[in-house]
Amino acid sequence: MTERASGGVPDEELIRAVLGGDDGAYGVLVERYKGRAFGVAVGIVGDGDDAMDVVQESFVKAYFNLKDFRFGSNFYTWFYRLLVNRAIDRWRKTGRSAEVRLDESWLSGDDSPPGSFAYPMTPEEILQHRELGEALQRAVLELPEYHRAVILLREVEGMAYEEIAKALGCSVGTVMSRLHYARGKLKSVLGSHREG
Q1: Is the distance from CB of 77 to CB of 167 less than 8 angstroms?
Q2: How do residues 23-63 score in pLDDT, each as one tens digit?
Q3: How many CB atoms lie within 10 A of CB 65?
């Protein structure tokens, strides 16, 4: 396996290769970020098929706008700004909150079970786990789109406040405020679930 295929080549080097006419280098960037992009998109739009469309459209848009990329900045942050904006637009257009069932096996081509199922669970634990997951999923989908984007970028993607601010085109203070609101909403869901 080549160094490029193994993911050892820095993003900036891949971008320079794409701008020099090597479309294969862009395929490496797509492979590197498609799983994370799908996770963010499905969290915002609430539907797996719409999320796939958003991811594909975002990668296409990023490809055609790569000439505007500022070297020295982070490709991940630059791309996720396009992705989140497109996802929010799609969510507004469809105006729905679909229930999402994630089957991410296509991301790795690996049929092994997720780590959370690596130990035996009792039927009661499985039911509680499923109910909590569904309650959290509903709560995330009920958040206003910008709060939803912030919680996903921070809690799922692990992005720093500064990265989120750049990705969403707002201040760090706004990110913190939206994150506080979203966490409070999700905490109340968790609290009511425990009481129920």
Answers
A1: yes
A2: 899 999 999 998 888 888 888 887 788 889 999 999 999 99
A3: 12
Asked whether 86 and 54 are in contact (CB, 8 A), the reply is: yes
Same domain, 171 and 132: yes
Which among 45, 32, 51 is positioned nearest to 94, based on CA atoms? 45
According to the 3-state scheme, what is the secondary structure of 20-47? CCCHHHHHHHHHHHHHHHHHHHHHHHCC
Cβ-contact 11, 76 below 8 angstroms:
yes
Higher pLDDT, 1 or 168: 168
Joined together, the tokens standing for residue 196 give 């129920």
164 vs 167: CA distance, rounded Å: 5
Q: Which two tokens stand for residue 97?
A: 């909150």
pLDDT digits (tens, 9 = 90+) for 77-92: 889 888 888 888 887 7
Domain range enclosing 72: 1-98
Whole-structure pTM value: 0.57
Mean pLDDT of the chain: 75
**Angstrom distance (rounded) from CA 52 to CA 35:** 10
Q: Are 181 and 149 part of one and the same domain?
A: yes
Which residue in this structure is represented by tokens 């999402």? 100
**Backbone torsions φ then ψ of 73, nearest 5 degrees:** -95, 175
Sign of CA dihedral 84, 85, 86, 87: positive
